[in-house]
């Protein structure tokens, strides 16, 4: 079932709606047109209490002022480009340097800060598709690129996210969603007591500004080894240069295998809520909210450092500048597609 209601008017003057998708179990997903943002996901915990596992806000104005990208689609390129510099077809480009001299999440003009158009809704499939046009060089990337995202709430408590993009020039295409999870509940405080497993043998170390060096390092023997379940907070502040650089986990893993496959799992012993992330993307960024600073969240909650964790499926950060990483270049008039599925279940 899908219900659409008015949510407010953006600073641009455009009207914004909120769309509520509900399955037969009562699981409820809320999406707004602004930023194609996932506002909330409420699911029954092991005691049948409705628990919202997404960090977010109550109002449109708060999302417009947000610097954490809670629940927003990031594009056309997520994560970082070193120095904001890149080359396509021998042409050099300079993107906005909005993060210590680097480009982060396509700069301040990313699609997570714009109103999307609702292309279609399907109550039978419980899905909604939103679309937006990113004009040539609008975000310092070449080509007029139409981007789409489809959210589908399954009867099995899965959230399927399909991304699609087409450009009339060769460009970068690397989309993700910056949803912050807290399986104890969005207002439950620090998330680092929850357990995590990542299906990755390697990760990509960075310099002090979080730009990959090009090295691919084995996780074994490091605090980045989540090949088996481990409490997220146990080694987050270990004496290890990569953790010191980022103030905790904010790093990319190269996911084992190819095609649709498991990426990561997480579980809360408090609520019994378990998350399984699957994707066809080559990599995933683990971020544990190191830079959240006493933010007023929805429902009167206050969000603090490490209150939520992100599993951002994507290409390796700065892949455009490293030949040994899979290239994020989308050829003109070809179609970019990626899929990530978040499956929720209860462990009692």
How would you describe the overall organization of this protein?
With 348 residues, the protein is mostly beta strands. It has a single domain, classed as Beta-galactosidase, Chain A, domain 5, CATH 2.70.98. Helices cover 3% and strands 40% of the residues. It has two helices and 29 strands. It has helices at residues 60-65, 241-246; strands at 2-9, 15-22, 28-32, 38-44, 50-52, 73-74, 80-81, 85-88, 91-94, 103-104, 117-122, 127-134, 145-153, 158-167, 171-172, 176-177, 195-198, 202-204, 217-218, 230-231, 250-254, 261-267, 273-279, 283-287, 295-296, 302-303, 310-314, 329-330, 335-346. The radius of gyration is 19 Å and the shape is globular. It starts with a strand and ends with a strand. The mean pLDDT is 97.
In short:
This protein is mainly β. The chain has helices at 60-65, 241-246; strands at residues 2-9, 15-22, 28-32, 38-44, 50-52, 73-74, 80-81, 85-88, 91-94, 103-104, 117-122, 127-134, 145-153, 158-167, 171-172, 176-177, 195-198, 202-204, 217-218, 230-231, 250-254, 261-267, 273-279, 283-287, 295-296, 302-303, 310-314, 329-330, 335-346. The chain is built from two helices and 29 strands.
Keywords:
40% strand; 3% helix; 348 residues; globular; Beta-galactosidase, Chain A, domain 5; nine-stranded antiparallel sheet
Show the helix and strand layout.
Layout: E1 2-9, E2 15-22, E3 28-32, E4 38-44, E5 50-52, H1 60-65, E6 73-74, E7 80-81, E8 85-88, E9 91-94, E10 103-104, E11 117-122, E12 127-134, E13 145-153, E14 158-167, E15 171-172, E16 176-177, E17 195-198, E18 202-204, E19 217-218, E20 230-231, H2 241-246, E21 250-254, E22 261-267, E23 273-279, E24 283-287, E25 295-296, E26 302-303, E27 310-314, E28 329-330, E29 335-346
């Amino acid at each position: 079932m899908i219900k659409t209601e008015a949510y407010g008017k953006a600073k641009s003057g455009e009207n914004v709606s909120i769309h509520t998708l509900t399955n037969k179990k009562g699981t409820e997903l809320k999406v707004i047109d602004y930023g194609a943002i996932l506002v909330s996901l409420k699911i029954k915990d092991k005691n049948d209490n409705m628990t919202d596992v997404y960090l977010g806000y109550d109002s449109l104005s708060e999302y417009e002022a947000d610097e954490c990208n809670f629940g927003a689609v990031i594009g056309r390129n997520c994560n970082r480009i070193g120095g904001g510099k890149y080359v396509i077809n021998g042409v050099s480009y300079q993107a906005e340097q909005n993060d210590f001299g680097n480009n982060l999440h396509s700069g301040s003009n990313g699609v997570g800060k714009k109103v999307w158009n609702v292309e279609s809704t399907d109550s039978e499939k419980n899905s909604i598709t939103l679309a937006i046009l990113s004009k040539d060089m609008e975000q310092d990337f070449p080509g007029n690129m139409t981007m789409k995202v489809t959210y589908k709430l399954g009867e099995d408590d899965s959230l399927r996210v399909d991304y699609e993009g087409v450009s009339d020039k060769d460009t970068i295409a690397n989309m993700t969603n910056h949803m912050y999870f807290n399986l104890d509940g969005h207002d439950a405080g620090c998330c680092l007591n929850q357990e995590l497993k990542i299906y990755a043998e390697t990760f990509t170390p960075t310099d002090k500004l979080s730009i990959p060096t090009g090295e691919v390092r084995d996780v074994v023997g490091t605090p980045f080894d989540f090949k088996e379940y481990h409490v997220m907070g146990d080694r987050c502040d270990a004496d290890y240069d990569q953790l010191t650089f980022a103030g905790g986990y904010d790093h990319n893993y190269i996911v084992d295998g190819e095609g649709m496959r498991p990426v990561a799992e997480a579980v809360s012993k408090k609520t019994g809520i378990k998350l399984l992330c699957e994707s066809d993307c080559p990599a995933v960024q683990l971020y544990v909210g190191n830079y959240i600073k006493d933010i007023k969240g929805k429902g009167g909650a206050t969000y603090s450092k490490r209150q939520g964790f992100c599993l951002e499926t994507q290409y390796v950060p700065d892949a455009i500048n490293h030949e040994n990483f899979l290239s994020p270049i989308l050829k003109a008039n070809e179609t970019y597609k990626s899929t990530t599925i978040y499956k929720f279940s209860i462990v009692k």
